[in-house]
Structures are given as C-alpha cells and as structure tokens.
Give the backbone structure.
Amino acid sequence: MTRRIRDVMSHGAVAVEPMTSVARAAHLMRDQDVSGVLVSYDRDLFGMLTDRDIVVRTVAEDRDPHTTTVGSVCTRPPVVTLTPDDTTDHAAELMSRYAVRRLPVVASDGCPVGIVSLGDLVAT
C-alpha cells in the first residue's frame, strides 16, 4: 500500500551547520543513534553527512575529524530530496535509482523537516 512520506519519515532529523566539525557530528550521530545527519544553513539544505562519508572522506584520507568541517566532506547538492507529500513508492524508486539508503525530506520552502530511510519504507 502506498503511503505518504509524512507518515513514515523520522521527524526532526538531526541537523548540523556546514562549519561543524566531523568529530562533533559523529558524536551527535552516536548520541542520537542515527547513521546520517542533514547539513543545513539558514534553514536551507546544504547537504547530507553519513557514517560512510566520515569513513571514506575523513578517516581514510587521514584528515583530522576535529578540524575537518562537515561541509567539506558531506554529500553536496544536488542531494535527492522528497517532500512530505511524496509517496513511499516514489521514495523507493529514488533510492533504487540513486543507490542511497536515506533521503532528506524538505518542506516546500526548502527547509529540512525530516529524513526517510530504507528501513522506514520496509516497516510500512
């Protein structure tokens, strides 16, 4: 059964600013038990940082996570996004097409409002 993203997404996803250190973002991810955070600036989506970004673009490149900024290693636009009114079928199609496991959810004004993961879709 097709549902709306607003019904399955995680509301109030963890968000950080681009100048946040990777170490701080990693601590937030651990404390909130999430595998990705939205990167936003002035209520606009700047990008998305995942645990994989931290490993591949910071640790594997011998960058210091205390001085490396989230904005320098996150996945930057065009980040594929959804709106709360999109369907779960559309989300699954985008995840498959772009080989991603999570998508930011943004309001009509571009403000990040949540995140939907592959697990959220499976649970529906």
In short: The chain has one domain: 5-122.
